[in-house]
Every structure is written in structure tokens, then in C-alpha cells.
Design a protein that fits this description.
The structure is a homodimer. Chain A is α/β, with parallel strands linked by helices. Chain A has three domains: about 10-50, lambda repressor-like DNA-binding domains (434 Repressor (Amino-terminal Domain)), CATH 1.10.260; about 65-165 and about 300-330, Rossmann fold, CATH 3.40.50.2300; about 165-295 and about 330-340, Response regulator (Rossmann fold, 3-Layer(aba) Sandwich), CATH 3.40.50.2300. Chain A has helices at about 10-15, 20-25, 35-50, 55-60, 75-90, 105-120, 135-145, 165-180, 195-210, 230-240, 255-265, 300-315; strands at about 65-70, 95-100, 125, 150, 160-165, 185-190, 220-225, 245-250, 275, 295, 325-330, 330-335. In chain A, the strands form three sheets. Chain A has a six-stranded parallel beta sheet with strand order 2-1-3-4-5-11, sandwiched between helices. Chain A has a four-stranded parallel beta sheet with strand order 7-6-8-9. In chain A, strand 6 (about 185-190), helix 9 and strand 7 (about 220-225) form a beta-alpha-beta unit. In chain A, helix 1 packs across helix 2 (about 20-25), helix 1 (about 10-15) packs across helix 3 and helix 5 (about 75-90) runs parallel beside helix 12. The longest helix of chain A is centred in the N-terminal third of the chain and has 16 residues, at about 75-90. Chain A is elongated, with a radius of gyration of 26 Å. The model of chain A is unreliable at about 345 (pLDDT under 50). The interface between A and B is large, with 52 and 51 residues. The structure holds a DNA duplex.
DNA sequence: AGTTCAATCGCAATCGGTTGCATAAAGAAA
DNA sequence: TTTCTTTATGCAACCGATTGCGATTGAACT
């Protein structure tokens, strides 16, 4: 029952008594085909229920019209937005999308890259897994001249444009905010320093301390995987500290929230004893009590920009090589978890 | 720089002085090729950096080896798990995946379906958008005999297997639980009754009431889109009711949480004044205070089962036609938001 | 009438695997 | 040695769209 035969350009050609070449050109709006013939072709195609065979076309043109995406996870509002943003641009440009998640593991990332390569994607958009140390698994793309663009969790490589926010500045701002609120002993919970996002936020944190004359203490920098589980462990670590910090800046909201909740369970008052700040503006940041101060940035935009850059390249627009890094804006969102001073009220 | 020419089976054939047909068969582990020749072919292929051209293969075999997925959104732990589950099965079976989100809109769902159709997916896995009323946009697949499987948010059609949980039973159980906790006036917040998941949970709710001798009140059934925004509005609606309910069962956690938070802001005590229950076991259900009673079910499993069913069909295994509906297990997770009785303590 | 030129359109090769059928080689049975 | 099977491999025709190049046609121009 599966084999209703598809109509091809040859069928259309036969019906109209013209050649398949003309049909092909007509369908593609080729200038050498007369207005009238084009109309007849298009009408016949519709009437006969023709649909182009992508594979024949791809085979002949040596292009797949497909773009690959590899992300750590799909289950965040942020990533979902990123992908929605990419989808729109990419579809409008007539490309298709293959999406896969590395689930934060290099091994899976390598497999995914191989799959993408074998599927001959025309270009690749990547946000790196937690523990990826090098991009050897992507070198096959670079060697073949297949455009590779990193976003958010990027890797600096002369051949690869990157789309990011100013993580350094955001880290600096949020730390400065905590200092302004009166914190003098601020802890930072960060993730793998292999990832630019965490490394830069951490640098911003350190520089903000320095610029405000606060010495950096090694004990105040904790690196974990930023999961809820490890955040809870970190909370216990903090509880057992002789002098607890009076402010905590966690590199993502999941970590901030779980840590904060655990501390509260053990009698720590937020923000009075410890002020809190996270990163990402996840929905949970507005649900947890007290609401979490955080940094917001637009996934939709980042996805759209990344996709546009890639498609620009595929169309032979090499401008972006000059601007190797595209930096998008972010916004500090101040909520109760960090408001120690009574003077700040919103009506 | 893009045009390092690819090595083909013809290149391998020439190198080994055999025919391309033999190379093709050797690579596919065809039984008619001798052990020795196979080894030589595989080694040569690796040495020469050969990669199969999917398009040539697809064109000839009239199959794409691609499976399409259409979901409402990607940004939930549940959907992310579902897709991870599908990915594993599907990759292991040698298929590729095209994923797209309808963003809860029929229009986008229709577009996505068209894209999938034009890409000639071998099969399709679908969870319907919020307001989809019919599946005309999928009839093209059914007509062509392309297997179509619905999961979670399904549509009953003789040609389409469905993968679900027992939403009716879950709704019944959670309502019964609220009743056992002493609730006598239970409200249910549900979503579009076009979607089985909400309709069935609602039926379970009604039947549980009836079986416990509690009359159903029309005012106690509220239908909204289950978003945070509308949940907050619903909260205000509840605040203005002359007799407020003493228990609320919301059809998802997002709605339950937002509604609960808004009520608390206005002095409603949870669970004492109003007991709360949600659905899905989202991460927020463990973050909100008090922790939310909810229903858990495994996305990974659902994804894997759906994918396995589809691939079974593609391989000509028609068994599943007998079992048109596959029902997976779920679990009631009781937390503080619904524990009115003091007798329940966990150490 | 003879030429020129632009507008249209067709021929046929090509992209790289796949597969039914024929063939060849090697071993088994007679 | 002859004949019948197996076992391995090659031939060549696909799959359907694309495109360089050449052919045709009719109109415009000398």
C-alpha cells in the first residue's frame, strides 16, 4: 500500500510535451524559460501533486540544504528559545534542521558530530558539552570548509565565528551589585572552567572584587557541575564553614536555587544572612522564595543571529569573517534574593 | 576550498581492482561477498576516508532513513527526556531525526507537517499542539502509508498507534487523594478538552468525585491554557469566589505552581486552606513552597517505546496494529502541598 | 533576401549507490 | 572426466533533478 508512485518532472514533461530540463528550470524560476511555459509547468505540477525529490537534487547539486545543531540539552527555556529562533530563520531560507543533544557528554557530542558529518550538513551550529576539552571531532568540518559556528558555550578558533553574550561583564555587574548591597564576603559557584561562559563569569567576579578592594579568597570559589544535586552538597559545605559568606553568585539558576533552598532549610535567612544571585533567568528564578536575582539574555535572538550568520556564509557572504565574535546584550534582573538594603522598593 | 573531492565506491573499486557493486555489497555486509574481500574493502574504505553518500542511497532505495518528530515545545524536562529516549533507539537503528516544535499552534504544526512530508520522512512521531482540532494535515502521511504514531497528546485514528499513560486513572487517583486528605470542595483547572491528556484527567476527576459522593459543581471546573499567566488570573478569580475550594487539582505543574504562589501572596495557606496538586513532576514542583503533590511519568520510556514501535513498523513488524494503544505506568507523588492530615510524617 | 541576435528550449551527461540477473570459478557428486 | 551446485563477483540499468552547451525560432536590421 506504500507504493503510490511519485510524480516526477518527467511526468510533467510528458504531460506538457516538453523536456524535463525545461520543467526543472521552470520550477526553479529560471530566466531562460518563458512566462507562459512557466505558468503551465507550475499549474501542471500542482495539479499532478508533484513534490520535488530532495535527494536527487542534493545528489546532483552536492549540497544537502540541511543545517545541524548540537546542544547540551533541549530542556531549558533558553535552549528551546534558541532553537525556535534558529528554526524560523533557517526555514525561511529554505534549509532543514537536524537537532541533537549531547546530554553534556563529550562522547555523545563526538557521536553526534559524526552523524552530522555523514549526513553532510551544509553547516553546523554548536554549543559545547560540559566537559569537552578540544574540538578535534569538529576538525573534519573545518578541513572540508563546512562552516561551523559556536554559540553560547563556544570554542575560540580562527575558522569559527562565535555568538555570545558578555559573560565577563555580566559576572562583573552581578558581583558589583552584591557588593553594593553590602556584601563583603562573596562566594562564587562556577562550572567547568573549560567553558567560556563559566570562566568569563568567574573572571568578572574576581575583577569586580578587586576593583572594590575586596581580596579574593580561594575558599570562596567552588567549582561543581551546577546541577541541583551538587548544589545541595555545596550548601552543606557552606553550612560547615567557620565563616560563611554573606553573598553567593552562582553561575546558573538551577544551582543558585537548589543551594538557596537547602540553606534556608537549615535556618539561613535570604538575603539577610546570605544574598543570592544566579544566571539565566529561568522560570524557577521567579518561583523560588525569595525570587532570585539573575541575568537575563534572549535565546531567540541568539539563535536567530547564529542562524543568520551561518546562512550568510553559505550564501557566500564572507563579511562575518571580519567580525569573528558577535556579542549580544544581557540584562541584570534584580529581585529580592539580593536586596539587603531596605531603601530599594518597587511599587 | 570547499571542494576536496569525496571518495566514492568507484574509487575504492578502482583501487582494489574490483567492481563498485562488490564494494557496495561489501560495505553493507552482504552475505554473497567473501570474508576476505569484505575485509579488504572495509580497510580500503577507512584508509581512503570514504563516507557513504546518503542521498545517492536514498534516491536509489526510495527511503530516507529519517524519522520526523513534532512536539508542542522542547523546553520541558519531560519533552527533553522523551526526545533523548527516541534519539537513542532511533540512532541505534540507523535512522536520523528531524525535530521541530509547533509552539502550541496548529498553523506551525501544519507547516511542520508539510516540511516533514517534503523531506519524505519514513515515519512520524507526533504530540499534538494545544488547539489542533483535526489531523487533516497528517492525512497525506496516512494516505501514502507512512507510519504515524502519536504519543502523550494523541489523536485516535485507526491507522495510528498511540503511546500514552492512563490519564484517567491518574486524574482519578490524585482527586481521590485530595478527598482522603479531607477536601470536600475540589476545583480542577484543566486545558483544552480537545487534548486527551486534559480530557481524561478531567474525567478521572469527575468520576472520583462521584464515587466519593461529592457532587460536581460547574464553577469548580476551569479551563485555561495552563500557562503561568493564565494561572495567575485564575488565582484572582478564585480569590473573588464567595466560597473558595479547599483543594485544587491542576492539569499541569506550571499552572499549579503559579496559581498557588499567587494565592499564597494573598494570604491563602497551603495546604490548610487549599490543598494543591499538579501533574508532570516538573523540577519546579520540588522547588515551590510547599513542595507540590503531582504525578510522575517517564519521558525517556515514552520516547523509547514510541520510537521502537515506529521502527518495528518500518521493519515490517505489524504486531502493534493489534495493540493500537500502548499505556505506560505513572506514579502519584505526594508532597506537602496536599498533606492536610498531621498523621503523615516522613522522617 | 541575407544576417544578426536574443529568447527559448532540448540533449545528454552527471551525481553515487543499489540490485536483478548473468557469469565465472571452485568444489562436490556421479 | 563430466555434470551439478555453491559461492563470488561483475554488468548495467536504474533513482530524479540539474546544467553546460548546442539547436531552433522569430524578429529586427542591413
Amino acid at each position: 500500500m506504500n507504493h503510490h508512485k511519485e510524480v516526477t518532472i518527467y511526468d510533467i514533461a510528458k504531460t506538457l510535451n516538453i523536456s524535463a530540463a525545461t520543467v526543472s528550470r521552470g520550477l526553479k524560476d529560471h530566466p531562460a524559460i518563458s512566462k507562459n511555459t512557466k505558468k503551465r509547468i507550475i499549474e501542471a505540477a500542482k495539479a499532478m501533486g508533484y513534490r520535488s525529490n530532495t535527494f536527487a537534487s542534493n545528489l546532483r547539486r552536492q549540497r544537502t540544504n540541511t543545517i545541524g545543531i548540537i546542544v547540551p540539552r533541549l530542556n531549558s527555556t533558553f535552549m528551546s528559545d534558541v532553537i525556535a529562533g534558529m528554526e524560523k530563520i533557517v526555514n525561511d531560507a529554505g534549509y532543514n534542521l537536524i537537532i541533537s543533544q549531547s546530554l553534556e557528554s563529550v562522547e555523545k557530542e563526538i557521536k553526534n558530530a559524526a552523524t552530522m558529518f555523514n549526513n553532510r550538513v551544509d553547516g553546523l551550529l554548536v554549543s559545547l558539552a560540559y566537559n569537552t576539552e578540544n574540538i578535534n571531532h569538529f576538525s573534519q568540518f573545518i578541513k572540508k570548509g563546512i562552516p561551523l559556528i559556536f554559540f553560547d558555550r563556544v570554542y575560540e578558533h580562527p575558522a569559527c565565528p562565535t555568538i555570545v553574550i558578555n559573560n565577563y561583564k555580566a559576572g562583573y555587574e552581578i558581583t558589583s551589585h552584591l557588593i553594593e548591597q553590602g556584601c563583603k564576603d562573596i562566594m562564587h559557584i562556577s562550572g567547568s572552567q573549560l567553558r567560556n561562559v563559566y570562566l568569563q563569569r568567574c573572571k568578572g567576579y574576581k575583577d569586580a572584587l578587586a576593583d572594590h578592594g575586596i581580596p579574593f579568597k580561594n575558599n570562596n570559589l567552588i567549582i561543581n557541575n551546577l546541577s541541583a544535586t551538587e548544589a545541595t552538597q555545596t550548601a552543606h559545605q557552606i553550612l560547615s564553614m567557620p565563616d560563611r559568606p554573606d553573598g553567593i553568585f552562582a553561575a546558573n539558576d538551577t544551582c543558585a536555587v537548589s543551594c538557596m533552598i537547602e540553606l534556608r532549610k537549615h535556618g539561613v535567612r535570604i538575603p539577610d544572612d546570605i544574598a543570592f544571585a544566579g544566571f539565566n533567568n529561568d522560570p524557577i528564578s521567579q518561583i523560588v522564595e525569595p525570587n532570585l536575582t539573575t541575568v537575563d539574555y534572549k535565546g531567540n535572538e541568539m539563535g536567530a543571529v547564529a542562524a543568520r550568520t551561518l546562512i550568510g556564509h553559505l550564501n557566500g557572504n564572507f563579511d562575518f569573517l571580519l567580525t569573528n565574535t558577535l556579542m549580544l546584550r544581557h540584562e541584570l534582573i534584580i529581585r529580592e534574593s539580593s536586596l539587603k538594603k531596605e531603601m530599594f522598593y518597587e511599587q
